[in-house]
Amino acid sequence: MQLPSIFFLFRSSRNTVLRSATRQLLTLGAGVLLSQAVLAQAVQVENAWVRATVPGQHATGAFMRLTSASATRLVAVSTPAAGFAEVHEMRMDNNVMKMTPLKDGLELPAGKAVELQPGGFHVMLMDLPKPLPAGSTIPVTLVFRDAKGVEQRSEITLPVSSKAPMSPMAPMEHSH
Ligand SMILES: [Cu+2]
User: Fewer CB atoms inside 10 Å of the end CB: C or N, the chain?
Assistant: First the structure.
């Protein structure tokens, strides 16, 4: 008779399923609690996007609006979509547009929106292992550190696009 062993198999697999379901629920619960705790003090990220690349292009920019409830700095950015990422500032220097990494990170004053946008502050993604086509997304980790050295991390998903997404809140770009 094979029945007892089949029954045993059924039982054990059912238990395994139940155990893993319970574990997933617990993990989910802990995850929700954790994200709520983080959200309470997290830096608000809006209108985030990455400029799409063409084959052969190994660097691109990521843009977003950051608003932190308390004063902090964006000190590091990482993503599996790039070999490395830096926070850059772009400005005119003797009529030449120059990009330089912000050594101390990007200052985020309390309650003030800071724009990372084409032509200004931006996140530079370099050493791209493969092109980033429009319509795809990439995961990005933002690391913030305040004056006391307290770190916060934001895991976000950025849409890849060939131009800035439409936003009623986006500042007008004026050409003179
Ligand atoms: Cu740059």
Answer: C
Superfamily of domain 43-161: PCu(A)C copper chaperone (2.60.40.1890)
Total number of residues shown for the chain:
176
Q: pLDDT digits over 43-70, tens only?
A: 999 999 999 999 999 999 999 999 999 9
Q: What is the Å distance from ligand 1's center to 154 Cα? A: 21
Per domain, the residue ranges of the chain are: 1-41, 43-161
Q: Which residues of the chain have pLDDT under 70?
A: 1-41, 167-176
Question: Model-level pTM?
Answer: 0.71
Kind and range of the H or E run holding 33: helix 3-41
Count other C-beta atoms under 10 Å from residue 128's C-beta. 17
